[in-house]
Amino acid sequence: GDSVTQTEGPVTVSESESLIINCTYSATSIAYPNLFWYVRYPGEGLQLLLKVITAGQKGSSRGFEATYNKETTSFHLQKASVQESDSAVYYCALGDHNNRIFFGDGTQLVVKP
Amino acid sequence: NSKVIQTPRYLVKGQGQKAKMRCIPEKGHPVVFWYQQNKNNEFKFLINFQNQEVLQQIDMTEKRFSAECPSNSPCSLEIQSSEAGDSALYLCASSLQVNTEVFFGKGTRLTVV
Prior knowledge:
Chain A is mostly beta strands. Chain A is 0% helix and 50% strand. Chain A has no helices and 12 strands. Chain A has strands at 3-6, 11-14, 19-21, 23-26, 34-40, 47-52, 58-61, 64-67, 77-79, 88-95, 101-103, 107-112. In chain B, strands 2, 4, 5, 6, 9, 10 and 11 form a 7-stranded mixed β-sheet that branches. Chain B is mainly beta. Classes of the chains: A mainly beta, B mainly beta.
């Protein structure tokens, strides 16, 4: 089936350190899936962080970036220097062209001051 | 910030009772989605609509859930006879077109006792 596997949390890093949250996907029924990172800040709803629809392309937002790698079926999320305000739960996801989205289980990020 | 409004935020029902939750999509968004996020953080796509027409739904939704998006009224998701396993966070989302950015509400947390 179609599924996403991501780093199990919580992930704890200190402010200004670098971050990587791994994500791999399996898309058996979707030929060219769209890939997403969503974020849920405390007390807020899910919101789109970044989206990439073309293999080989990189998406970036708020200092985060992720590259759609079709060869390794990966879409790892990276940030060079995290801030305390980045503390949240991050979800990797893939979507079909009807926008039906398959989410990973989420990775809680805790950034220590 | 998302303007998808879900009510109520919390809902407690006994087993066998009906459970109904509502969603007002972002203004002008004809495409509406419902997802279930269980206590293990696993997401499950339930159903999506374009205007008042169902686009896709899973078997579970067809059998025990009813959902509608009438014109000029909130969308709704109703569980006909709640079961303990239905306890979850129900997320509504909307988008302008089928393959454009999806905006999520904060969810309705259903507890079936």
